[in-house]
Amino acid sequence: MVQAWYMNDNDNEDQRSERHLSPPNYIDIDELKTKTGILYWNIDADNYENDENFQKIRQERGYDYQDELEISKTKIDDYENKLKIFFTEHLHSDEEIRFCLNGSGYFDVRDRDDRWIRIKIGKNDLLILPAGIYHRFTLDHNDYIKVVRLFTGQPCWTAINRPADDHPSHQSWIRLVEATK
Q1: Which of 22, 40, 68, 85 is the most buried (most CB within 10 A)?
Q2: What H or E segment, with its residue span, contains residue 81?
Q3: Is the pTM of this model over 0.85?
Q4: Which structural domains are found in the chain, ordered by start?
Q5: Entry's InterPro entries (predicted)?
């Protein structure tokens, strides 16, 4: 099951560390949804192609394209630089959908009060980050993750780095989370 907590954003600490506050401040999946708009499902990664819930999510949300991505020192050229790029705070004009088949990592997202929340994802976790949410990604100390990426229509990987507060997708995200207050 996915774990999430408010995090310490100490730049002197390894980005792959858990970065807990002292004391730790965990949040549950319902609070995560309310404060960020993130959606979560637990899907059997070993049998996801036959999983009715996975197929229902794809159909209801219009995901008609998918691919797989492995991130590790042996799978990605210029690995360390790529991790730095993934860890740059940004948003997308479309949802970001990641389903973890194996390995683990962290998505860091901003809540409606602009505080960082760290989400640890691992095998069987499917996350949907809403369009316009500021976020970043890093691996944990295992240095490996394999994910399915889902898209509506043609895949788009355009990252819009912060600041992008006036971007229409970010403004829509603000309205989404403000409606849950």
Answers
A1: 40
A2: helix 79-86
A3: yes
A4: 3-178 (2.60.120.10)
A5: ARD, ARD_euk, RmlC-like_jellyroll, RmlC_Cupin_sf
